[in-house]
Amino acid sequence: MYPFKSKPVRRRVIGILFITICVLGVLRFIYMRQQDLKAWPTALNDVSFSSYNTVFEEMSLASPQSVSNFMANLTSPSKELMNEYHQFQTFGLGDEKEYPLIDEKLGEGSENLLSAYEFWSEYDAFDMRENPLHYADFIGFSSEFAVLGCYQMSAGGSNEFIQAGQAGRIELLEKHVKMTSGGGLLARAAALNNIMLIVREIIMNPEEVQGGEVECSRQIESIRALEGRVGNLGDALRSDYNSIKDAVSAIYKQLAGKRDSEKTDSRRLAGMSSVMVALLGGNEADTQANMAALFSHLIRNSESDTYTEDGLTAGLPAWLGHKKKRSPWTRDPVGAAIATSYMQNAKYAHAVMPSILLELRAARIIVALNFYKQAKGDFPENFGELIQAELLETGDLYDPFSTVAGAEMIYSRENGGWRFYSVGLNQIDDGGVYDSYRVKNVREQKQSDFIFMSREREYRTTLFEGN
User: Fold this and answer.
1) Phi, psi torsion values for 310, nearest 5 degrees
2) What is the phi-psi region of residue 127: left when phi exceeds 0, alpha when psi lies from -120 to 50, beta otherwise?
3) Tens of pLDDT along 80-108?
4) Which of 139, 205, 314, 361 is the least crowded, having the fewest Cβ atoms under 10 Å away?
């Protein structure tokens, strides 16, 4: 009546269940391995992985190691340092305003900062073919370089390398484009962050406008020239591909128990890690082939002249587009981990390049607006007046995020000042109500645009006083 109460019967049932589970598990694993054969994109053999296209051929390129000495005292800015800098941006210099962290940093590192300026007068870009992994470490310093440089110029610091005022800010733009040209997506993100800092400084210091139409034209032309120096998204992806190739080789060396004699902190990966990779069939040749196949698609997707929301993930397998599908870890666990991690950063990376173009065009517009007011006594009613005054060209006004070729950014007068904006990531004109850099929730993010306004200092003051 109760057959399972018999010990031999219970053992047989448990044994059968265990064997069944094991068989099903093995079949499931075999099925997953078969599916994982199809989970990686096929290679596009006609895509070039050359590190540089023609824009770099005539340039003087610097090695990442060349900068190590004068960047020694610079680091990624701390939260406290950035907060102090934002207070300086809001309230400026005055008898009651002190910025001890920035002053201390400049006291320790101003000589290095000046050396960096001198260094970049000799070079046009980085040579990523030499130690690209070291470059990724170095580029984190550039934000502090921008913060200290902006402050030093705003404080009226003047020397043979750094010009004070607006001319110095434009020179700083040039230095940061040089510093990040030739680098990967991390470098482009650093360039965007630094360019944004400098453009906001130009917005908040309109009184620094000096000279007439000739000086205005010179400044605008120097900023316009930077668009051709940034490179394109394909260049950044090729640089990252070189870095990842080196990283894959380093990982498999560690799995094999080899150490990098040049790095004292090099460690062999855990023994179980190498065992699991070997059991799953992972090997360096397959990982390198999968990375090459992935990047061939990313580079091909980057060739589009216009921004699209699909961006780099267009046409890739679902797991690479983060569409809730597992990565193919049973065939290439190392490759799957690297690809998943990289695509998390690359998902919106295609927006970095048009964002840099947007900031550089905004800088030209802001310079023109300030010179226009100096000459005419007030800001223009529309962008057309800047064209008629021959301060700008039509291309300076193009919105790089618009779906319409040649569409201009949207401009309006505002309380004696001005406001203009780009349609932003969703490529829809949401009226310039929410700024993408200042949204507070998902709803605002979906309806946000990239906004530039003359009331920047007033807006920041309100934020600080609100806190």
Assistant:
1) -65, -40
2) beta
3) 999 899 888 888 877 678 899 998 888 87
4) 314
**Whats the size of the chain, residue-wise?**
467
- Report the alpha-carbon distance of residue 302 to residue 46 in Å, rounded: 14
pLDDT digits (tens, 9 = 90+) for 363-372: 999 999 999 9
Burial of 180 (0-12, 13-18, 19+ CB in 10 A): buried
Among residues 305, 299, 311, 350, the alpha carbon closest in space to that of 48 is found at 299
Give the C-alpha separation, 247 to 51, whole Å.
16
Strands across the sheet containing 448-453: 410-414, 417-422, 448-453, 434-435
Alpha-carbon gap, residue 419 to 429, rounded angstroms: 14
Tokens of 258: 């080899």
* 139 against 393, higher pLDDT: 393
Between CA 145 and CA 139 the distance in angstroms is 10
34: phi > 0 → left, psi -120 to 50 → alpha, else beta; which?
alpha
Residue at token pair 């919106």: 348
Q: How many CB atoms lie within 10 A of CB 14?
A: 11
Q: What angle do CA 168, 173, 178 make, to 5 degrees?
A: 125
pLDDT in tens, 394-411: 999 999 999 888 899 999
pLDDT at residue 179, rounded to an integer: 86
Q: Would you list the domain boundaries of the chain?
A: 234-350
Angstrom CA distances, 205 to 202, 224, 456, stand at: 5, 20, 10
pLDDT for 18-28, tens place per residue? 888 888 888 88
DSSP 89-102: HHH-SBTTB--HHH
Alpha carbon 348 to its chain centroid, in Å, reads 9
Q: What is the pLDDT of residue 56?
A: 65
- Return left, alpha or beta for 407; rule: phi > 0 is left, psi -120 to 50 is alpha, else beta: beta
Distance from C-alpha of 327 to C-alpha of 254, rounded to nearest angstrom: 23
**Closest by CA position to 343, among listed 240, 418, 265:** 240
Q: What is the DSSP letter of 218?
A: H
* C-alpha–C-alpha distance, residues 386 and 371, integer Å: 10
Q: Which of 65, 99, 63, 67 is nearest to 81 (CA)?
A: 99
Q: Compute the distance between CA of residue 329 and CA of residue 276 in angstroms, rounded to an integer.
A: 11
pLDDT of 298 higher than 80: yes
The amino acid present at 161, given as its one-letter code, is F
Q: What share of the chain is helix, strand, coil (3-state, %, to 5)?
A: 60, 5, 35
How much of the chain exceeds pLDDT 90, in percent?
25
Distance between CA 125 and CA 357 in Å, rounded?
18
Beta-bridge partner residues of 448: 434
Report residue 255 as tokens: 């799995």
Q: Which residue in 228, 232, 139, 240 sits closest to 190, CA to CA?
A: 139
